[in-house]
Specification:
flat; single chain
């Protein structure tokens, strides 16, 4: 004779645990959705939310980034600036950022951040020249060290190709 009453009871307990876990997962998912929905409001900085910046940006884009203004911008923009990703909209953002900084300073306020970053003067198309220099130096260090790795580690080593792919990604 086989006793099945204990088996049914275990199934009921498992079913209750499953329902509780599912409810917990639903609550976690709901909280995650609510937090994610609130993130865009937190991403804007004081400078790029300011009335001065937004009106300047709208005026600039309407004047320079449409029709004949866009054609004029494209013919006058240096080639290297386009290659570095400076399109008409980015140029307007840059110009309006500095107009807004001047507006804040005239009003006796601190210099605001824009898009989560402090304003920097653009040098040869790089808005953050120190960051560019350190990134290039970091890239050079990686190239030197991958050369050292290749000279000291045999090609048949177990992770030789994995390290090479990871280093060059």
């Amino acid at each position: 004779m086989v006793c099945t009453s204990g088996l049914k009871k275990n199934k009921e307990v498992t079913s209750e645990n499953f329902k509780k876990n599912l409810l917990k997962m639903d609550i976690v998912a709901l909280v995650a959705i609510l937090v994610a929905a609130g993130i865009p409001a937190c991403l804007a900085s004081l400078g790029d939310r300011s009335y001065s910046f937004l009106t300047c940006l709208q005026t600039c884009e309407n004047a320079k980034c449409r029709g004949p203004g866009l054609e004029r911008f494209n013919t006058n923009q240096p080639r290297y600036m386009g290659l570095l990703g400076w399109d008409c909209t980015e140029e307007c953002k840059y110009e309006c950022m500095w107009d807004t900084v001047q507006t804040f300073q005239r009003a006796g306020k601190d210099v605001p951040q824009f898009y989560g970053k402090w304003p920097f003067v653009r040098v040869l198309g790089a808005q953050e020249p120190a960051s560019v220099v350190f990134s290039v130096l970091n890239g050079l260090a990686h190239l030197v060290m991958i050369g050292v790795f290749r000279s000291r580690v045999p090609k048949n080593a177990p992770l030789y190709w994995t390290v090479n792919v990871y280093a060059l990604r």
